[in-house]
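Continued from yesterday's entry.
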Amino acid sequence: MDDTIVSTQYWHKMEDGRLQCDLCPRHCHLKQGQRGLCYVRQHLDDEVKLVSYGRSSGFCVDPIEKKPLNHFYPGSAVLSFGTAGCNLACKFCQNWDMSKSREMDTLADSASPEKLAQVCEQMSCRSIAYTYNDPVIFLEYAVDVAQACREHNIKSVAVTAGYIDPEPRIEFFKSMDATNVDLKAFSERFYHKICGGHLAPVLETLEYIKHETDTWLEVTTLLIPGENDSEQELQEMTAWVVEHLGPEVPLHFTAFHPDWKMMDIKSTPALTLTKARKIALDNGVHYAYTGNVHDTGGSSTWCHHCGELLIERDWYQLGRWGLDEYGSCAKCGTTVPGYFEATAGNFGAHRIPVQISQ
C-alpha cells in the first residue's frame, strides 16, 4: 500500500454518489478518482484521501521573521516546508510553482513526522513551519508532524490563508503553537475575483484563533496597487482588527511584486506600506510592520506605551534588544504580547536548504 495516501475524515457522501469534501468552504463535489481544486485530496475507494502524506516540495531552515512572525521567539531558526496544491486560486501567488503544481514529481523529498522532529533538533530549530502552500490542505500530515515535534519541545507554525471549515479548524489549530494568517484583502470583491474564495470564512477563522485557541496569531496583508491598498479599505480592515481581534495582534503589510497571472501590475511602492502602517497605528493597532522592503523603522518593534525601540530589525538581522527577561519594555515595564526568551536569538538572515531522505 502507498503510505503517501491516507484516509481523511472531513467529507460526506451525497445522494448522487459523489463525495463532498468538508475540509474548506469550497466543498468540492468529487466523483470516483476526481481531485479537489487543492489537488491533494481525492475520491478513492469511496472515501476522500490525502494523496501527498509525508511528501514535500523541499525543506529549508529560515529565520522565524521570514514567516513573518515578529513576536514568536525572535531570532530563532525554523524548519520550513510545503507540499503541492492549494485551496485558493490567487492570481498573484508568489509560490505558484508549488501551490499551483499539478505534478506530484514536485514532491521530490519525503519525511515521516518523527524524522522531521529529529531534523529540527539536529538543526537547532526552535520551531517547524508549514508554509509555501497552505497547510490546511495537508491537515493530517501537519497534525501528525506537530504531535511528533511537541514530544521534542519543537513548536509548530502554520502560514495559512485561514480558508478552512469550522470542524477541521478545531483539530488543525489545536496542533499549532503560532500562525500567521494571510488576510488577502478586506473586500468580498477581491476574494471572489482574484482568489476564487470568500472573505467571511477567513474573518471567522481569525476570530476563532484569537478567542478560542492558545495559538499565537499574527496577520499579514500583501498590498497590491489598485486592488486592496485604498485608504478606505485599510481604514476598515485595521478598525476591524482592533475591534474583533484586539490591538495587540501584530499586523504585517508586505510588498507585492509581479508574479504568475498578475505580471502587468507594478510592485508596491514603499510609501504605500508606510501609509498602511500609519493607518493601523492611528486606528489603535499596537504593533504594525512593513515587509518585503528595506525599512528598519517599519520592521522593528517599538513600545506602544513609551515609544522605546524594543527589537531592531534590519531585514532578518536583529540589532538592539530592549526587552527585559520577562518580555516587557526594559524602560517602562509595559508587557509585550508574544513569546520571547530572555535574550534574542542569533540565527540571523541565513537560509539553509536541507535534504531529507527516508
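--- second protein ---
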Amino acid sequence: MAEIGYGYGSEWQLLRYLGHHRNYLNKEILKALKLKNEQIIWKDYPVNKNRLSMDGELTGIKCFEKCFEKDIYKRIDKAWKTFWPQSGTSHNWDGVFTIGEKWFFVEAKAHLDEAHQKCGAKKEESIHLIKSAFEETSGSSELGQQWFESDCYQLANRLAFIKFCENQGIKAKLIYINFLNGWIKNESGFKSVLNQIDWEKVWEEEYKTLSLTKKHKDSIVHVYIDCLKG
C-alpha cells in the first residue's frame, strides 16, 4: 500500500472526510444505501510505526478478531486460510464500518486508473486458491478464469471476500467511495475525476468484463463525494 498523499488522493480524501466531514460522509453513505437514521460505526485503523502516517490498514479478516467471540473467530480464520492465499498482500481495506449486524468494506478511489489491476500472484498454490475462490464466487470455472485474467482483479477479489463472508454467515457489502476532484492539489500527472458519469462508465465496463449477475451487483454500493463539498 502506498503512503498517503499530502492534500490529494483517495486515502487522503477519505481520512479528510472521516476527520473533518464525517457527518456529511455518513449522510451520503446512508443515502446511497437508502437508509436514514441508522448509526454507522467505523472501525479504527491499526497503528503502524513504519509508515509516515504511523497508521496501517485493516487487512483481510483481522477486523473480525475483536468483534467476534474467540471460538467463532478461530473458525473464520481457519476457513479463510483455505479460501485465500496467506502469502503476499491480502485484502487491504480503506475503511470498515458496521450498521447493526451488517459489515461494510470500503474501497476509496480518486482517479480512474485505480480501478484497474491485474493479479500479481506467482506461486502455484496461491493461483489455485484464487481461481477456486473466483470459480465459486462467479458461478463457473470459465468465469473464474475470466476474472483471474482480467484487469478487474481488485473488484473480483473483493467480491470473493464478500462471498467468503456469506459462507461464514456474515452479512457484508462492498462500498466504493468514488471521489470527484480528489487530485486537484497534485501535480503528479494523475487527473481528478470531474463528474460522476466518468466513474459510472468505468464501473459499467468492469461489471461487463466480469459478467456480473444481479446478486453480485446488489453486494456493491457506490458513493460519489465531491471533494469541494462537505
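The longest strand covers residues 172-180. The chain has a mean pLDDT of 92. Will compare against the first tomorrow.
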